[in-house]
Amino acid sequence: MKARVHVMLKDGVLDPQGAAVKHALGALGFDGVDGVRQGKVIELDLADGATEVQVGEMCEKLLANTVIESYRIEVL
């Protein structure tokens, strides 16, 4: 089984990387961008029998900082 975890900063949390990307896009002439939020995608190859609940536990314990980040699990 494969799972993909999308991790993003929660709304209201400052995103300096997103701000830097927005600035760089403007400098390159892409003026139509009002905001950028940057996140990460983690792909997991899981053994047979692994569950989405276990992936959630992985996120809670290691893959996401749940104080400032949210995550979404996609089972492939």
TrEMBL record:
Role according to the record: Part of the phosphoribosylformylglycinamidine synthase complex involved in the purines biosynthetic pathway. Catalyzes the ATP-dependent conversion of formylglycinamide ribonucleotide (FGAR) and glutamine to yield formylglycinamidine ribonucleotide (FGAM) and glutamate. The FGAM synthase complex is composed of three subunits. PurQ produces an ammonia molecule by converting glutamine to glutamate. PurL transfers the ammonia molecule to FGAR to form FGAM in an ATP-dependent manner.
Metabolic or biological pathway: Purine metabolism; IMP biosynthesis via de novo pathway; 5-amino-1-(5-phospho-D-ribosyl)imidazole from N(2)-formyl-N(1)-(5-phospho-D-ribosyl)glycinamide: step 1/2
Biological process per Gene Ontology, one example term: 'de novo' IMP biosynthetic process
Subunit and partners: Part of the FGAM synthase complex composed of 1 PurL, 1 PurQ and 2 PurS subunits.
Protein keywords: ATP-binding, Cytoplasm, Ligase, Nucleotide-binding, Purine biosynthesis
Pfam families assigned to the protein according to its UniProt record, in alphabetical order: PurS
Signal peptide (UniProt feature, chain positions): none
UniProt cross-references to NCBIfam families, sorted A to Z: phosphoribosylformylglycinamidine synthase subunit PurS, PRK05974.1
Protein name, per record: Phosphoribosylformylglycinamidine synthase subunit PurS
Its EC number(s): 6.3.5.3
GO cellular component: cytoplasm
Matching SUPFAM superfamilies: PurS-like
Gene3D superfamilies xrefs: Phosphoribosylformylglycinamidine synthase subunit PurS
Membership in a protein family: Belongs to the PurS family.
Encoding gene per record: purS
Single GO molecular function: phosphoribosylformylglycinamidine synthase activity
Subcellular location: Cytoplasm
PANTHER family per UniProt: PHOSPHORIBOSYLFORMYLGLYCINAMIDINE SYNTHASE SUBUNIT PURS (PTHR34696:SF1)
Keyword hit for tRNA processing: no
